[in-house]
Amino acid sequence: MANWKFGLFALLALCGLTSLVSGYKVGVGRADITGPPVEINFMGYANLKQVGRGLHTRTFARAFVVEDEKGHRVAFVSADCGMMGYGLKREVVKRLQARYGNIYNAENVAISGTHTHGAPGGFLMHLLYDISILGFVPQTFEVMAQGLYLSIKRATDNLVDGRIYFSKTTVLNANINRSPTSYLRNPVEERAQYEHDVDKTLAQLRFVDMENNLLGAFNWYAVHATSMNNTNKLVTSDNMGYAALLLEKEFNPNKMPGKGKFVGAFCSSNLGDVSPNIMGPKCSISGKECDLLSSHCPAGEGDCFAMGPGRNGDMFESTQIIGQRLAEGALGMLNQQSQESTAREVTGDVRFIHQFVDMPNYNGSTYNPLTRKLDKIRGCQPAMGYSFAAGTTDGPGAFSFEQGTITDNPMWNFVRDFIVPPTQEDVSCHAPKPILLATGRATFPYEWQPKIVSTQLLKIGDVIIAAVPCEFTTMAGRRLRNKIRAAAEADGNIETDVIIAGLTNIYTSYTVTPEEYQAQRYEAASTIFGPHTHTIYMDVFEHLTKAMMRNETVDAGPSPPYMNDVMLSLNPGVLFDGHPIGTDFGYVKTQPNKEYGINDTVKATYISGNPRNNLFTEKTYFTIERKINEDRWKVTYTDASWETKMVWHRTNTILGFSELDIFWNIGPHTLPGEYRIRHSGEYKYILGGKYPYEGLTHSFFVKED
Known about the structure:
By secondary structure, this protein is α+β, with helices and mostly antiparallel strands. 23% of the residues lie in helices and 29% in strands.
């Protein structure tokens, strides 16, 4: 009898253990979100000259969905875009609910931008962020909304019983602190807890089915996706996107980029003061060191510009190097035989919590360890400081503004006040930030910056993802992670790993620590809710963590305003396309050479229509094809491939003439053989309508090295 009882107990315990370990449904999905590649300004550097001229790599949305045995579900998306706007998230949730009912909502869906500065803008729906794009761009908004929706739909359709593993590794030589003097403002005893002044940890969630087949891997690392600088005019997913392409290529052999079952993503984290340009800043003309405090160069010595590890600062090579280092770190953790494989299985239930916060009207208190008293904290109306206009060492600004500026200027104050003046309360609230733009007081033609922000936590077992609506600096992110971890342990009695997911759900520029705020470098000047911004977030996320661990609900908070019907745009559409007499659309004006070798570059030029006529979403503007036999050609590269570039240019604006150059860099692993290039497009007829066309080069040979 005793043996029977023991056996029953053991069986029940085994069943309980199996339920604990294998209680998830997991799914991953990917979709194309590439916006108009030409004639639209890119989002990130706020450079009016950075207007798209073509395509280097397509941009994608990569999603995972996790559901526990009780049916609690969360969806997370990492999108190759600068950041996320709430109007866009609202539209994605609307489309999800049209298909799935209330399974998805604002509380359990998180959408994060990788922070590439090389993708078309015009989707954020706040004037300050869209003004350098010349306003709202419906085409960008629509392709992103549909792609984000499709990525979650595909992840949902792919749900299977599975397991989740969490692991971490260290990736060196991929990031540096671009505001090191601000970081040094943080307490010495706090800095002593960390080896580096940026986070070097790459955190990974790995998804497998019950047969241990790899489904996907999502990786978070703190680095700006700014290896491609503000002179780039080709759509690019930058270093994070390149790392994702490498990872997916490894586990989707013989598939084109953006295709295949395995989904590998590299997601943004607390990257606010973190640059991939690891060679550091130098004066662009003289090559001398910039001033450390102001990131300024003497007259005649150029801008203070940081360079990546590429030879002579080559931004394409720098993107490859940083992306490859990130991908190698992720691959090391996915390789179970690797010394870097320290994965542990994620166990526990799925929870989520979300709250909108009216930042300017937030009032609270926080404990001051120096005075041992409670200090009152409050938010400010949004405002940008003088140093915002100075830009960063990744992309310098204009008009001789310098970082670290804590005094104002009568001339710029006059310009500011002509637009909209700050109140005296604004000035004192933001001190020591001198206000350059009182964005919170500006209402014409619509809101300039958000006042209501989204705060959100996703709990997947013993891993918590903190979705922050801005760019947290290194120490700001470290403090938040520690705060959430401590609150979860105190109220949930579990040890958790906390991931900061940056630029999520809505964009509100930067968040620095109170100490860094005093330095007023770019990141501090762009901390729009004033010196207590970080303290407020610490307060809010601690409250959310405690409520989530107790399974309590919180007040939803005031929703961001609906502004879709007041958007303005100065971007004209495509009027019509034309072609020179004696040619037609798709005519190959410049044929490739007859023969090429390894490391050569193939070029073909076509008479084309405007690429904005058809974005070829989930398709391609061109293919590189290799001859298999007399009846068959195989596609070997597309416009999503790193090895290819597409450059479009007007040849006659009045007559609507344009040409398209296609470049293919022949890599060392290219098979020898006979190749050709096929271009597909659409032209807009002057009397109305869009019509497809196609052009095909003659064949050419790639010889063995």
